[in-house]
Structure formats: structure tokens, C-alpha cells
User: What shape does this take?
Amino acid sequence: MVLIKAQPYNYELPSDLQKVALLIIDMQRDFLEPGGFGEALGNDISHLSAIIPTVKRLLEVFRELQLPVFHTIEGHQPDLSDCPPSKLRRTNGKLKIGEPGPMGRILILGEPGNAIIPQLQAIAGEIVISKPGKGAFYQTHLESYLHKQGITHLIITGVTTEVCVQTTMREANDRGFECLLVEDATASYFPEFKQSTLEMIRAQGAIIGWTASAANVIQAFYNYV
Ligand code: C5J
Assistant: This one.
């Protein structure tokens, strides 16, 4: 049995590592890059960009071990047909979804700012899921891809911790996946929200799942092979 040293207790890897996928949530230019939508809204993007090397390291390990990798992008069709009016209305008054932003139309698929940052671009064989919601299971084929590949365990990374990452982890947990959120490979514009999310996820005996450092995750994978 191989365990990842985690909170609130050790996370057990399945005997077949191909059942474990890395899920990278919304590492998009508009959220992370200087001059993007996130920064235009007045957010401190340094909290988000700080995790890029750690996510990249995990991605390299999964690639080296030839394990499944999934990326997500939050974005909408150019005609906004997949964007509920409630989401469209929700704004702090500065920029709305679909309007021209610093790197193209905000949250529109195919726009420069909607792309995954260059450091984490998907390669052949990795699946990129475009999602219209915060959760990666809502109106996407993620669940069927995971089932088709026999994946039971998800190692989750990305941004933002309390929004798309947490929503996705809750959706995955309800669907029976064993989820671990990598503490130093997820970030929020609000560090206190990240901390609270980590705590609420692992509370009550891992009610939503586990958390662990990237170093502990990587060490366990290398112990395995
Ligand atoms: C994500 C957001 N990815 N904060 N989106 O968390 O709107």
C-alpha cells in the first residue's frame, strides 16, 4: 500500500496508478498574467502566479510517469448561449463576461486571455475540458472521460481555490472520486479564503477530501514506481 502523507490522515493510492489523474483547474492567462482580467479587476495576481512552478513540477511528474492529465478552462461560446443570464449580470461594475478586456473578450473561448498560460499548455494525449460553470462536471464530458479511463482518484490543482477548485472538488466527491487538493499548487486572490477552503475540505474526517503538499505527493509517486 502506498500512502501520501496528507491531512487529515494519509491518502491511499490505488494499486494501479493509471487510476489516478492530475486535474489542473483554470490556469488561464486572464486569471494569472499581468495585464489580464484578474489584475484589471484590482486583484493581486502574485498569489496565483506563485504556484506556477509547483503545478508545472506536478505536471512533469505525471508526464514522466505517463499518468492521465486533465486541464480545464472556464469559458463561454462567443454568442454566450451557454452563459446563464444570472452569471452575465453578476459583476462588480467594471467588466462583464463577453466584453472586450485587456486580452480579448472576457471568458470567451478562443480569446487570447482565455488560453492556458504558456508554461502549462496541454500536450498531445492530455484532455482539455471547457466549462461554462465553476464546477468542471457541470455541462461537460469530464465524468464520462474519467469513467471511460477507469480513473478513481483525482489529484487537484489550480485556481481559484475557493471558487472553481472547491466547486469541482465537491462535485467530484459527490460522484465517488477520492480527491486530494495539493496545498501549494492551488491559490486564491485572497489567501484567507484559500486557507479556509483547505480547512473545510479536510474537516470532519476528510468530508470532501484530503490536502497535502506537492512534495509529499511527488515523493509518494516516486516511491511507487
Ligand atoms: C475560477 C473564478 N476559476 N474565480 N473562476 O475560480 O471566477
About this structure: The chain has one domain: 3-224. The mean pLDDT is 96. The beta strands are 3-4, 11-12, 20-25, 69-74, 100-101, 104-105, 127-131, 153-159, 178-187, 210-212.
